Amino acid sequence: MSSIANLYANGLGVTKDYQQAEQWYQKAFNASQKEVALLKQNS
User: Fold this and answer.
1) Per-residue pLDDT tens for 9-23?
2) What is the DSSP track for 1-43?
3) CA angle 13, 22, 10 (to 5 degrees)
4) Is 7 exposed, middle or buried, given 0-12, 13-18 or 19+ CB atoms closer than 10 A?
5) Which of 10, 15, 26, 37 has the fewest CB atoms found within 10 Å of its own CB?
6) What pLDDT was estimated at residue 43?
7) pTM across the whole model
8) How far apart are CA 26 and CA 13, in angstroms?
């Protein structure tokens, strides 16, 4: 998801859009936090 954010942040193949980039960075962060929580649960 952070790769999609990078596309928007840099205008690579899409119109540069910092708000869209921020949303995708937030989605990536949230997903990684969920993964960490799951790993801690299963340890």
Assistant:
1) 999 999 999 999 999
2) -HHHHHHHHHTSSS---HHHHHHHHHHHHHHHHHHHHHHHHT-
3) 30
4) middle
5) 15
6) 82
7) 0.82
8) 21
State the Cα–Cα distance between residues 7 and 27, nearest whole angstrom: 14
Distance CA 31, CA 43 (A): 19
Whole-number Å distance between alpha carbons of 40 and 30 = 15
**Structure tokens of 29?**
């962060």
| Cβ partners under 8 Å of residue 17, min gap 6 | 8, 11
Supply the pLDDT for residue 1. Answer: 85
pLDDT at 36 exceeding the cut of 90? yes
